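Module 6 notes. Inverse folding takes a fixed backbone as the condition and produces residue identities as the prediction. Think of it as a translation problem where the source language is geometry and the target language is the twenty amino acids. Below is one complete input and output pair. Work through it position by position during the lab.
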């Protein structure tokens, strides 16, 4: 099987997304996400403790229409914008950050169909995905040894193991990145769309982290998995438009962390207002009336509001960036990536700080397991380690001082 170089086609590619979300669209998907979050809230702690793959939760996403949000209407989707998708991720993260993560990665994997695939591939996969309400997981972790595509007749055999394959075990389709190991196309790095139940795929179920326990991020082993031309999305390269998957996922992280902070603050407020006494040295009647308590809430609320304003601005701008398609320049891509890196820095720190300090104003009883306030801290502490925030600070600082831009990768 010969892989055609699609660099020229990608440079001329048109984006299937254009314009911006209307207030009506944003309101619709916000209310949809809030309804899903309310359903998830009913047993969020119990599900977190059970730590099993969230098949029922993904079905809830499917029934809500959120899985089809960004698929263009012409191909059977809901025709929504990325701003709406990112806001939905944020809303879900206020209640259940694990399911918010699965949804965020699902959108990234749908985006990859456009970033790497031809117009024909996009239409074929989007129509199938929209009709069946597919959930997309992935096996693309770039710090893992690459999966191999071994030439086999008219196709390939997929071999190897990928750790941190978010959503793969509960998805209908898996986005897989793999390198051709031999033949005339040796060394080419391909993106594949592989169905969940393909023979030779084994889901190891070994995700057992402190937080994000229901994000279905376990390892996947591939042994002799047959790959045909129908499974190939396209070649992974460095053309600016095709690399927007990284700025998007970092932007999704910023919204995820913001949502966790908002959820922790709201849960803390609920606990504080329920306390009917005050510290014995305080002159206030209740903890909520104590100026020291009010000071902490005032600081955290103000910092969260600042992060929210930044996230809202960048979310809206992303729709304009992605609409450029193959006309997107490296300079415009880099400028947007730096904006998103700034959000990653402040959302990470505000998220961790809020989820930590909220215990200071809710008292020792809030540390009880049944209260569940720890869920926010465990989730933000786990996911904020995805890639070192210090390197994002360096990325922003080097650009500010010297105009430097980091080399394109699946982390920058």
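Target side of the pair, the amino acids:
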């Amino acid at each position: 099987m010969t892989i055609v170089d699609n660099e020229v086609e990608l440079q001329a590619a048109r984006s299937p997304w254009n314009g911006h979300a209307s207030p009506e669209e944003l309101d619709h998907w916000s209310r949809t996400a809030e309804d899903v979050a309310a359903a998830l809230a009913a047993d969020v702690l119990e599900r977190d403790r059970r730590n099993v793959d969230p098949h029922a939760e993904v079905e809830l996403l499917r029934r809500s229409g959120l899985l089809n949000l960004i698929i263009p209407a012409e191909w059977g989707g809901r025709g929504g914008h990325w701003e709406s998708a990112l806001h939905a991720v944020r809303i879900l993260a206020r209640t259940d950050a694990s399911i918010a993560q699965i949804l965020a990665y699902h959108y990234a994997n749908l985006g990859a169909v456009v970033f790497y695939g031809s117009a024909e591939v996009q239409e074929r996969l989007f129509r199938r995905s929209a009709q069946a309400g597919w959930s997309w997981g992935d096996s693309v972790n770039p710090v893992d040894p690459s999966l191999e595509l071994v030439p086999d007749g008219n196709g390939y055999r997929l071999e190897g193991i990928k750790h941190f394959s978010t959503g793969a075990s509960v998805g209908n389709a898996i986005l897989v990145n793999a390198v051709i190991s031999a033949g005339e196309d040796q060394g080419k790095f391909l993106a594949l769309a592989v169905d969940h139940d393909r023979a030779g795929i084994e889901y190891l179920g070994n995700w057992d982290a402190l937080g994000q326990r229901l994000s279905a991020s376990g390892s996947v082993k591939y042994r002799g998995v047959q790959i045909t031309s129908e499974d190939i999305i396209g070649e992974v390269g460095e053309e600016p438009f095709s690399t927007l998957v990284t700025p998007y996922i970092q932007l999704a992280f910023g919204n995820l962390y913001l949502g966790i902070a908002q959820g922790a603050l709201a849960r803390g407020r609920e606990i504080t207002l329920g306390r009917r006494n005050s510290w014995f040295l305080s002159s206030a009647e209740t903890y909520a009336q104590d100026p020291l308590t009010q000071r902490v809430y005032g600081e955290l609320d103000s910092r969260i509001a600042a992060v929210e304003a930044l996230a809202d601005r960048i979310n809206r701008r992303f729709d304009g960036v992605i609409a450029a398609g193959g006309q997107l320049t490296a300079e415009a891509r880099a400028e947007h990536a730096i904006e998103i890196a700034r959000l990653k820095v402040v959302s990470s720190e505000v998220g961790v700080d809020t989820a930590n300090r909220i215990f200071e104003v809710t008292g020792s009883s809030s540390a009880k397991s049944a209260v569940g306030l720890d869920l926010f801290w465990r989730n933000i502490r786990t996911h904020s380690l995805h890639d070192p925030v210090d390197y994002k600070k360096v990325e922003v600082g080097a650009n500010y001082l010297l105009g430097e831009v980091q080399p394109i990768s699946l982390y920058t």
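Reference fact for the lab report: Residues 7 and 239 are 7 Å apart (CA to CA).
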